[in-house]
Amino acid sequence: MSKVNAAVAAALAGAVFMTGGQVFAAQCNPKGGFPAFVTEFKKEASQKGISQRGLAALDGVTVDQNVLTADRRQGVFKQSFEQFSGRMISRDRLTKGAKLMQQYAPQLKHIEQKYGVPGAVIVAIWGLETDYGVNQGKLNVVRSVATLAYDCRRTDKFQAELADALRIVDRGDMASADMHGDWAGEIGQTQFLPSSYAKYAVSYDGRGKPNLIRNAPDVLASTANYLKNHGWQRGQGWGPGEPNFDAIKEWNAADVYAKTIALFADKLNGGTGSKAENTKPQTVGAATAKR
């Protein structure tokens, strides 16, 4: 999760995508503590098809108190659209985004042909989420989601995320030691939760496993694949009131964040304004759903 999203995305619960609709029901915070939780979760995960290769990612894992602290300290953070977008769409970020659009122009063209999502939208998300891959987070994803699954606040959601993190390891996409993100378990340069990574991560060239941490074309293609699968309509606009704004809100449900993506994409696309600038001012709140 980007630093901005860590401040505004308190809810997270709006973005649950449990693989195969499976529900995990290990007892949160059991009498035997975290080791008892892990034992019970491993048993249930094994019954749902996760092999020893994936289950081994939980060996030696401990509770991360810093993750629990981050989860509990989320307060209401409010900024107007003008304040938020003005801070997030900086001159440096625009300049770098424009250069990256030129650098990856062939790939972005191919991605738009395949998924229907323009490069400006994808690059805007890339820049806002991690400053183009610079700030991906340094925490072990399996440990983070295991900690949140053990905690009783949102155990159902994060047991599902933990299962998908293990599936990513199980199918050989990444080793657990290489799977790093921010405190809520987001992975890669556009910050996919494990459930979304398991569903929508793709290899740009169709060869090998997708790598959303180090491979920029995979990042761009996977982001487009996510949007396509959440209702993106080829050739349609993306500002507020236009068909694809709803798809952007599937990326992040905070209206101000979605409008900032739309405005950033407009600017990268050569425009100077956006419908986002002409709508009623709103604030970023603490109940932001995130993929």
Task: Write structural notes for this entry.
A two-stranded antiparallel ribbon has the order 1-2. The protein is globular and about 60 Å long. It is an all-alpha fold. The longest helix has 16 residues. Helix content is 49%, strand content 1%. The N terminus and C terminus are likely disordered. The protein has 14 helices and 2 strands, in the order H-H-H-H-H-H-H-H-E-H-H-E-H-H-H-H.
The gist of it:
With 291 residues, the chain is mainly α. The chain has helices spanning 3-8, 33-47, 52-55, 65-72, 81-88, 91-103, 105-115, 119-130, 141-150, 155-170, 194-200, 216-228, 245-251, 255-268, and strands at 139-140, 180-181.
Overall geometry: globular
Q: Oligomeric state of the chains?
A: single chain
pLDDT < 50 runs, ≥5 residues: 1-20, 280-289
Largest sheet: 2 strands, antiparallel
| Share of β-strand residues | under 5%
* Fraction of helical residues: 40-55%
Could you tell me the number of beta strands? 2
Kindly name the structural category.
mainly alpha
SS summary, helix count? 14
Strand arrangement, largest sheet?
Answer: 1-2
Instruction: Give the SSE order as H and E letters.
Output: HHHHHHHHEHHEHHHH
Calculate the mean pLDDT score and round it: 87
Distance between the termini: 10 Å
* Radius of gyration from CA coordinates: 19 Å
